[in-house]
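Predict structure. Input: Mechanosensitive ion channel MscS domain-containing protein, 391 residues.
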Amino acid sequence: MDLFPSAKKIDWAQQAEQFGEYFSSGELLKNGIATLVIVLLLLILRSILVRAVRRSDKLPSDVRRRWLVQIRNGLLFLFLLGMTVVWSSQIQHVTISILAFAVAVVIATKELIQCISGSIMKAVGRPFKLGDRIEFHNIRGDVIDHNVLTTTIMEIGPDQMTQQLTGRAIVVPNNMFLNKVVINETFTQEYVLHCFKIPCSQKDDWRQTEQDLLDAAKIECEPYLAKARQHFDLLAKQQGLTVLSVDPRITFRIPKAGELELVVRVVAPARRKGRVEQAILRRMLDRQWERVKAAEAEKLAAEEAKALAAAEAAAAAALPAPSEPEQQPAPIEINAATEANVVSEPNGTPELSPTPTLPSMALPPDPNPGASGGATLGNTGVTASRNTRFE
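Output follows.
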C-alpha cells in the first residue's frame, strides 16, 4: 500500500541543485545578518525589561516572577516570528522535502508534539496562571514557571492538607494537562475560602470544641472579612457566580461509627491561609489547655480542703474529754411573803429584814424532853416539838 504517493514525485537532484544555487548566492549572507540583528535586538530588549522588573521594589515577588516569565515567552514568540519572515522564501523550498519525512518526525517527536498541544490548551483554556496553587495527579504546589514544553511547580506538602513548601521543584511536561483534572485552589485570586478538618470523638465534648473553634475563627478572620466580602461581591459580578459567604462556618462529618470530624471553613488571603489555620488551631488549643488547668487547680483545691478537714477531725479526736461542770445550787425562790421583808439599801443591794422576835411563852415542862423530839427556840425559852406549826 502506497501511503505517500507524493514522495515519489520529488526530484532530489533538482532539489540539491536549488540548494547549491542558494548557498552560492548572497541571499544566505543577507538572511544571516538579518537573523543576527534580530537576535541582538531581542537580547538587548530582554536585558532592559528584566532589569526594570527586578529593580521594581513595589511589585510583589510573585508579580515580578510572572512578568519575567511573560517577557521570556513574548521574546521567544518575536524571535520565531522574525525567523519566519526572514527565512520564508527558503522555507518554501524545503516544504516538499519536509512532507516526505513528516511521518517519521511525528513518530519520533510524539511526546514533544503533545507537550506543545498541552501548552496551547493552557494558553486557550487558562486553567491556571503563574503564581496559582494547583493540584493534579497527586501533585500539589505553586506554579512558578511555564514554557512551551514544561511547567515548573514548587511543591506543597507533605500531604494534601498542609500549606507549607517542601523546598522541592517539580517539572511537569505539558502533555499531562491534556488528560488530567486540574484543581486551582486560588481561583478566587486575592482571597480564598480555606477548609480544614479537626478529628473528634462523639464521646468527647464536641459542642465545646465547636464553640472554641468558632470563637477562634472569628477573632483571626475579623481583619479580613470586610475586604474579602467586597472582593467576592466583585468577583461574583464579573464572572456571574453566586455570592459566597465569608463568615466562619463549621460543619460535621461522620466518617465512621463513633468518629466525628469538624470541618472548618474560613476566609483568608491566598498567601496566608496556612498561617490563619495555624493561628486558629493554636488559639483553640490554648483555650482547652486553660480549661484543663483550671479544672486541675479546682480539683487540687478540693483535695487540699478535704485533707485539711480530715486533719482537723483527727486533731479534735486526740484531745482529752472535758470534765463535767459542777452543780450549781438551786436558786432561792422569793414569794410575795418574803418579798415584803426585803429592804432596799441605798446602794441598791437588797437585804433581808431581821427575823421578828417571838413573845415569851411559858409552857409546861415535858417530862421526857428527849423523847418528844422537841427543840428549844433560841433565847426565848420556847420549846417546840416536831409537830409544832407556826402560823
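The two ends are 172 Å apart (CA to CA).
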